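#structure-requests
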Amino acid sequence: MNAKPYIIIDITTTETELKHLLSNFTIPCIRLTTNNTDIEVNPKKIIKLLNICHEQRTPLLLEDHYEISRDLGFDGVHIKKSNNDFEIILKMATEDFMIGVDCGYSKHAGIISAELGASYISFKIPDDINPIDPDLLSWWHETIEVPLVVEGSKSLNQYKQVKRISDFVTISPTDWKSQDTFNKIIKTLQ
């Protein structure tokens, strides 16, 4: 089975763009990247994006803000590996609240996160790797039950390389907002 698209949006994503995306494509998961200022300055917009996803029955995860994501009704949180509280946060995972962990490109970090209860883990392709060395991704996908998200694909060739050795691949705002690029990525993943 091929990897499914995992869309990343940011605070510049418009309601129209998100509605168009979800009306025209089957998207199993979306992640909202923000910074502290975005949350303080644009709480209404964040709620609108959340409501659009919920209307379309698409889970929306918030990046790094566990308490805010719980309080606002997000479907989960994606924790960056730099988050010092990730072990505490992972203990709070439930079936109704996903917790994904960015593990860089570290097998050890992935195993620890999986053992602690991560709903999924993500490996980010290092910038200096091309072509992708599939060993870590293949090993994880074939051996570990915790779903794998691959981040950082920068070309159609890289999407093609990872589509059979991951459960999901992230697609950045730059790529999914370009209709031509996004259509090519979706076709590559099929």
